[in-house]
Amino acid sequence: MGRLDGRVAIVTGAGRGIGVHYAKALAEEGARVCCSDILDTENTVNIIRQAGGEAIGNRCDVTDPEQVRAMVAETVGAFGKVDIMVTNAAIFADLQQRSFLEIPEEEWDRVMAVNTRGVFSCVKAVVPEMQKNGYGKIINIASGTVFKGTPMMLHYVSSKGAMVAFTRSLSRELGEHNISVNAIAPGLTMSEKLVNDRQWTDIKDANAQTRAIKRDEVPEDLLGTLVYLSSSDSDFVTGQTIVVDGGSAMH
After folding, report:
1. Active site includes 156?
2. Catalytic position from the list 22, 135, 156, 228
3. Model pTM score
4. By CB count within 10 A, which of 17, 21, 35, 216 is most buried?
């Protein structure tokens, strides 16, 4: 038996990178998964189905509340409910590191629209379904950069700092409904996208040296924490941000 047998999960940003690993890990523990992204999620769905799991794909831009509501409705239509929401969709890998003086206002607004307002829209859409069942798990994705004050990506770090505050405040509102709200704060994680991008490979060794465990972080390093926060093992844990970065940021 899996730790998530009988559960239904939505993972946004499941079309590439860490999101693929998140969706696959939940399915391996028995959850039925809606793999959602602005990108095509067919590959993610196929990976899960070929391993014997259940999954559907959904095309969704999290900055469009109507599409977000449709994503939740499609999941409920396919699987009957939603127990777990992983708000992973975010702009990061495609950003260029640069001084805040060089960040265009349009880029700042786009990062905030996806990384903060998109999460807000997802939670607004899914919480009513969780309230019907008197149970739910919301897992937001923050970043270790928040606790280190990482420079040259002010919009991204600010958006992920918002996720820490968002998680704490929302947990207070949803506790009475037996809905837990927590966040994972990864370090620089060498997903398939980052492995092939010189901007990130050029700094990964120096980044690894800031850790207590001095090696690259890979997506698999995040999955134990994800499953824990998605499972009944963490039913009395809420409002927390767990840093998973090998001991680079400690708080």
Report:
1. yes
2. 156
3. 0.96
4. 35
